[in-house]
Every structure is written in C-alpha cells, then in structure tokens.
Amino acid sequence: VILVMMFPAAGNVYAQDEPPSSPWRDEFDGPLADGWHWVNENADKWGFTEGFLRIYTSPYGTGGENLLLRPIAEGDFSIETHLFFTPDTNFQFAGLVIWQDESNFLQFGRAFCEYEGAPCVGNGIYFDYTGGETNFATQIENPFNPAEAYLRLERRGDMVRALYSHEGITWTEIGTHWIPPEFQVNGVGLTSAQDFFTEEWDVPADFDYFELTEGWGFLPEGFHDGDQ
Fold first, then answer.
1. I want to staple 113 with a disulfide (CB 3.0 to 4.6 A). Which of 28, 96, 120, 198 is the partner?
2. CA distance 52 to 48
3. Single pTM value for the model
C-alpha cells in the first residue's frame, strides 16, 4: 500500500488481459448493420418484419442458401440471439453458426428430428458439429416453449459451449464441442436451412437480435473454468 501511495504514476497493472470490447448488436430493425454478408443469398427468402429479421428455411444444407455471416477477430467470443421458429419436419433447423466452410462448422438452434435410432426429441434444441466427414449432434433438450428460444454460443480456446434460455435471463448449458486447433473461424452468424421435405411451403425463422462480444470478460457472472 505504501508503495502504491508513493508511486501512483507507475501505472502497473497486474494479471489483466485486454479489456473487453463492448458487445456489438444488431436489433434487426432494418436495414442490416454494416459488416454482414450473405453466403448464397436468395433475396426473395429473407426480409424484415415488425422488428425481426425473417429468414425462410431453405431446402439446402447449412451454407447452401441465405447463410448470414459477419467477420470476427481471432480469440474468444460469444454470440447470442433470440429466435422464434416452429419446425415440424425433418430436419428443419434455425439458429447460430460458427463457420469455417461448408464441411466445417458448428450450429446451435431449434430443429426438428424424428428419426429411428437417433437421439431425437422432435422439436427441440440441438447442438451440431460438422467437421470433414464427421457430424456430432450432442445434448438435445426439450424447450419450455416450442416456438421460442434464446441461444448463446461461447468459444474459449478450442472449446465451444452452448447455452439455452427460455427468457434470456437464466441460462442452461446444453453441451460442448471441441474444435481442432486448425479450425479457422471465417465468420459467425445465423442460419435457417435443412428444409428438405416441404417444398410446397416456406417455414419462417424470426430473429429478434444478434449480439457478438469478443475478448476478455464476456462470460456470465459466476462462471468458472475447469473443474469448478
């Protein structure tokens, strides 16, 4: 204490990382904020409606049409959204994406799966990792509301944690995936895809907002690393 009082101008800071950047957020009041870009855009299948970004679920796999991405710096981050979506047919999916390319990505959101021999719960919350020829779907859980979900993905090093909330306050961890060290995050964003079997109608996915926080300090209060 005496040293600090005698030498207040030293400016030493101990055990501190870079301060957190302020969360970046798009409220989807229209138009899209700067920085977004579409992968395989179909302009007829997305738009704004009453404060939501609506993306109709495409008949292709993730990245085949209307994948919305924005760039991100290297390092840790979290992404979050509030989604209204009611899937009812295999394998409709809408939610968050961490993207390298069409063969390497993670997606976390609401989807429908009713498949014999698969760990499915119908309309539920699913966390998928596709890497090369490997696809892991992990930790699925029935939601409180079959039409609504708050979703968050948090990256810490090679670990990606998925959390779900029914009201945006209380979060439940659904699962984690470990990405290989060579995984290159080329974008983060939103998807609405895999509507392979309902060509006769479009299924809307409505996103209330998208929030991105990069760097130190993004994790919720009370979170502990490791065994804690």
1. 120
2. 6
3. 0.85
